[in-house]
């Protein structure tokens, strides 16, 4: 796995798991890039190689267990499982994950896949193979829109508290004849009248924007 230093500081890269069996080779890495959308706290990447002769059921179970452990520890992380899957599919094992690679990766076959827990995070584009590799390179182009860009614009009104406005409010309350306002024997009526009057004075003395 190669990581561009402009994307993530090497000190923020942590290897969480390494596993090599007759059915699967997998490397699990956590990243904290310089920038992430506010709703994502880190990126978890699983790099996978499954040989054509592997027991795909066993390989899929190993991936599922590792992903489940990561989900429990980091539910808000972005998680991606990518590599050469050959005949293995995670569609049934990880039904909430999305597969982004839609173009052939070796001749007419789609063997190199990328699953993620974010819908429409990427779209794929095939590039020529690297060196003498018989697999195409796949460029995953981001299409994810951060939550802040998907939310509708909201207009809010706030009060501008300052020393002058606070002094004006204090003067307004000091000059109030509270006996007139609280001229009632019902404690609930008194609380309602006092609260309403204080709110009226606040609206009168504290400017808004």
Automatic annotation (TrEMBL):
PANTHER family named in the record: ENDO_EXONUCLEASE_PHOSPHATASE DOMAIN-CONTAINING PROTEIN, REVERSE TRANSCRIPTASE DOMAIN-CONTAINING PROTEIN
Designated name of the protein: Endonuclease/exonuclease/phosphatase domain-containing protein
Organism: Merluccius polli
Source organism phylogeny: Eukaryota, Metazoa, Chordata, Craniata, Vertebrata
């Amino acid at each position: 796995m190669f990581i561009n230093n402009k994307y993530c500081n090497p000190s923020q890269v942590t290897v969480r798991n390494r596993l090599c069996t007759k059915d699967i080779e997998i490397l699990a890495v956590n990243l904290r890039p310089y920038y992430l959308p506010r709703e994502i706290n880190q990126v978890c990447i699983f790099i996978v190689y499954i040989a054509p002769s592997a027991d795909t059921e066993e390989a899929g179970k190993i991936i599922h267990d590792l992903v489940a452990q990561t989900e429990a520890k980091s539910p808000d992380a972005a998680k991606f499982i990518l590599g050469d899957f050959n005949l293995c599919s995670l569609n049934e094992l990880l039904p909430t994950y999305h597969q982004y690679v839609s173009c052939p990766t070796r001749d007419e076959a789609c063997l190199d896949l990328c699953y993620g827990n974010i819908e429409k995070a990427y779209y794929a584009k095939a590039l020529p193979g690297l060196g003498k590799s018989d697999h195409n390179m796949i460029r995953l182009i981001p299409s994810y829109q951060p939550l802040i860009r998907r939310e509708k614009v909201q207009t809010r009104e706030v009060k501008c508290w300052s020393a002058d406005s606070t002094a004006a409010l204090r003067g307004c309350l000091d000059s109030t004849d509270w006996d007139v306002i609280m001229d009632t024997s019902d404690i609930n009526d008194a609380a309602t009248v006092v609260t309403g009057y204080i709110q009226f004075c606040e609206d009168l003395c504290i400017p808004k924007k």
